[in-house]
Amino acid sequence: MSAKVLIAGSWREADATGTFQATNPNTNEKLPTEFPVSSWADCDAALDAAVEAAREMRKLPAAKIAEFLECYADKIEAAKDALSDAAFAETGLAKSPRLADVELPRTSNQLRTAAASCRSGDWAQATIDTATGIRSCFESLGPVCVFGPNNFPFAFGSVSGGDFAAAIAAGNPVIGKANSSHPETTRLFAELALAAAKETGVPTSIVQLIYRTGHADGERLVSDPRVGATGYTGSRGAGLKLKSAADAAGKPIYLELSSVNPVVILPGALAARGNEILDEFTTSALMGTGQFCTNPGLVLLLASDATESFITQVKERYAGGTPGTLLSPAVATSLKSSVETLCGFGAELLAGGGELEAGRCALANTVLRASASQFIDNPEGFQTEAFGNASLIVVADDLDQLCKVIASLEGNLTGCVYSDPAGSDDEAYDAVAFELTPKVGRVLNDKMPTGVAVSAAMNHGGPFPSTGHPGFTAVGIPASLIRFGKLTSFDNVRAARLPALLADKNPTGKTPRRIDGVWTTDDVA
Fold this sequence. Notes:
Layout: E1 5-7, E2 10-12, E3 16-20, E4 23-24, E5 29-30, E6 35-38, H1 40-59, H2 62-78, H3 80-91, H4 95-120, E7 127-129, E8 134-140, E9 144-147, H5 162-169, E10 174-177, H6 183-200, E11 207-210, H7 215-222, E12 229-233, H8 236-248, E13 253-256, E14 262-265, H9 267-286, E15 298-302, H10 305-320, H11 329-344, E16 348-353, E17 364-371, H12 372-377, H13 379-382, E18 390-396, H14 399-407, E19 412-418, H15 426-436, E20 440-445, E21 485-491, E22 513-515, E23 518-520
Parallel strand pairs: 7-22, 9-10, 9-12, 10-11, 12-13, 14-15, 14-19, 15-18, 17-18, 19-20
Antiparallel strand pairs: 1-2, 3-6, 4-5, 7-8, 8-21, 16-17, 22-23
């Protein structure tokens, strides 16, 4: 018997077209539980339930929805051991510190941060123009579908992560589509969310869960008239198929797809603290077996003796290290294929590559090298994402050629520049930053990009193909909530009929509102 799906507030047998099992990447063995591949009937039932939940949620005070998020965060923390055990079995990620001590606290923290934004209404951008009698704010959009990734089973999970938290805090129910790499972990989260919904008295269909659908049903789901929007994190190929379907139906879909996250190391920085940069790079690039969406996969340097020494040391570090476990057989196969693709385009294999380990999802730590002229001649090919413990180093003859490489980049989540703290690289920095900034969502100086802080100022987004739209972020509350809101203008609407956020009296006494062109927490005069 396979696991049940969560639809309309109850766990039920799926209307299944088949089943699948997750794989333990540490052993390459199938895990025992079977999970259903849902037919359209399950999707249809979940959509109907989500529509009713959305109607009920529109009547709820924001504080009630915030209470649900906070209660859910408490339950996640109480279930730390069970969640960490399940995720370790399905992903190979270390229970401690990665899962229990880092990712789980981040998950509960972002749920509570979303709850605070929901309660205050700061995300809604309440705007009041007393001269025209027009007032506006963002409101809930409707049911949101969330497709979670393989690499963050907690913090980006379909029924626990940032997209989930943002959608709920904006007043929308969520239909979660589990990632096939960690369905049991996702099921445990859904159980906790349902318990929190019952305990706090919100609609039990505020969260629903299916594990997998056929490709056609997934595309039908994101384009259904009942859907408000979709959040997706995953492969470029699958994401673009979903985007095509959603776009054809006029449905918003927010994608996080692929990113090589260029790191530029200028000569003065290399001279001033090359050993420190070496440590920072190799740690960042191989952390979590390189399976971070902000992993520094592309390193850009100017030709010099110091550069050659740096590359030699990187090669030695990679060759001398034990490779970590990759998330799944699919990730391992994809990484091996990407390395072979880069070599096929002419990249020189300095370390690693080769065959996958027997009995474990693992590939030797891999570093490749190409010239800037090679890159400029084939920028698309050399930007093949090698998701995992592999990095490409590109060496330019001079600053002009380096800038041409950067100008040929696709969109990325991050871009980093290391420069001399004494100022010898300042002129080069200005030229590099001019080309780099339009290509990335987050510009870093003198630090690696791997960490993504849960900060209101964070942009975890960027130009295509890092995401589907450069104007939105998946991390950073309250900004991330706006993706799942609808801007509504109230023109000459009587005071008693306005949303609380647009009343003359500030409903919380501290919600920021734009009144006659000025952001303030005051009441309307």
